[in-house]
Amino acid sequence: MTAEFEKAFPLLTERLGRDSLKLLLESARIVECPDGAVITRDGQPVDTLYLILDGVLSVAVEQDGRSLRLGRFGKGKWIGEVSLFSGTPIASSTVTAEGPVRLLALRHADFETLRKDH
What we know:
The protein has a four-stranded antiparallel β-sheet. The protein has a four-stranded antiparallel β-sheet with strand order 2-7-4-5, with no helix packed on it. The two termini are 21 Å apart. It is α+β, with helices and mostly antiparallel strands and 118 residues long. The chain has helices at residues 2-8, 10-27, 81-86, 108-117; strands spanning 29-33, 38-40, 48-54, 56-63, 66-74, 78-79, 94-97, 101-107. The protein is built from four helices and eight strands.
């Protein structure tokens, strides 16, 4: 798992250092999503930060039954940070898998524990 993370997030790996990376990986879990899986839904509760290890996610905002695609994110990017850092546990976009996706999922509570303790 460490090698896979290092390949997807080389700069973050360097900045974290070995000990902090180990703690992060121990606190997170791998999530594999099939094509079309909805990871977060605009306006719905969210409590997890997702780091993309492999695959592509489509990001869109929704309003009044319409959807506006904002872009795509792939390996080395993350989603769920807006709700984490804003303190508002509501997704600001709908994120959907475009093909199979492999994610590292870190619950906001676990991130906060790591931040406080380390």
